[in-house]
């Protein structure tokens, strides 16, 4: 997902740069940095509305690179798929035997039962996960996963909400920086 500022904000930033030079450049960088930091916050809120995932998992998946020498900043979400056990699996802990109905998880708004699934702790690593057998035999078993955070963010409704909020945040920050520079210059 790429977020660009709209034409009006570009023109406003260019006029600000022309009038105030280095002061304006620092102000624009601060506005960009505020907007990109807010992308993570907006992503947490937007993904939580749609999916039953812990906010800490969403925050951990982001890497934010602030604007350095150039007027550009990035917020990149990456990571692997999230284990289904992190979506409120019931039962929560491994039991002595497999649950009759299976394990229930709540990925989106409704709880679903995954038949023939069970919670288990791996002997060597101690990892607890939600598993299913590949066939009739006891082994091999496979851990079940859901989407990665980046895949959740690619959903059009979520991406649009994040982009709109980032543009509004940049606009507010840029206006604040312009007013601050004008005030400091004594023009206000």
Give the helix level as a range of percent: 40-55%
User: What structural category do the secondary elements indicate?
Assistant: alpha+beta
Write the H/E string, N to C.
HHHEEEEEEEHH
Number of helices: 5
Describe the global form.
elongated
Terminal Cα separation, in Å? 39 Å
Q: What average pLDDT do the residues reach?
A: 89
- Count of extended strands: 7
Q: What is the count of distinct domains?
A: 2
The largest sheet has its strands arranged as 5-6-7
Largest sheet: 3 strands, antiparallel
Q: What is the oligomeric state here?
A: single chain
- How much strand content do the residues show? 5-15%
User: Rounded to an integer, what's the Rg over CA atoms?
Assistant: 23 Å
Low-confidence stretches: none
Write structural notes for this entry.
With 188 residues, the chain is an alpha+beta fold. It has two domains: 7-79 and 148-185, no CATH class; 84-143, no CATH class. It is 45% helix and 15% strand. It contains five helices and seven strands. The protein has a three-stranded antiparallel beta sheet with strand order 5-6-7, with no helix packed on it. It has a two-stranded antiparallel sheet with strand order 1-2. It has a two-stranded antiparallel sheet with strand order 3-4. Helix 1 runs parallel beside helix 5.
Short description:
The protein is α+β, with helices and mostly antiparallel strands and 188 residues long. It is 45% helix and 15% strand. It has five helices and seven strands, in the order αααβββββββαα.
């Amino acid at each position: 997902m790429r977020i660009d500022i709209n034409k009006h904000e570009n023109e406003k930033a260019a006029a600000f740069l022309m009038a105030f030079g280095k002061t304006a450049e620092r102000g624009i960088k601060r506005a960009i940095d505020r907007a990109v930091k807010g992308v993570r916050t907006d992503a947490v809120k937007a993904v939580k509305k749609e999916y039953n995932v812990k906010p800490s998992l969403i925050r951990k998946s982001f890497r934010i690179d602030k604007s350095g020498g150039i007027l550009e900043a990035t917020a990149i979400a990456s990571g692997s798929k999230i284990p289904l056990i992190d979506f409120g699996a019931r039962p929560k802990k491994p039991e002595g035997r497999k649950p009759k109905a299976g394990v229930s998880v709540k990925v989106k708004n409704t709880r679903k039962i995954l038949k023939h699934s069970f919670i288990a702790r791996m002997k060597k690593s101690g990892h607890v996960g939600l598993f299913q057998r590949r066939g009739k035999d006891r082994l091999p078993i496979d851990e079940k996963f859901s989407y990665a955070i980046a895949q959740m963010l690619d959903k059009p409704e979520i991406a649009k909400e994040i982009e709109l909020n980032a543009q509004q945040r940049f606009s507010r920050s840029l206006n604040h920086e312009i007013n601050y520079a004008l005030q400091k210059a004594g023009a206000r």
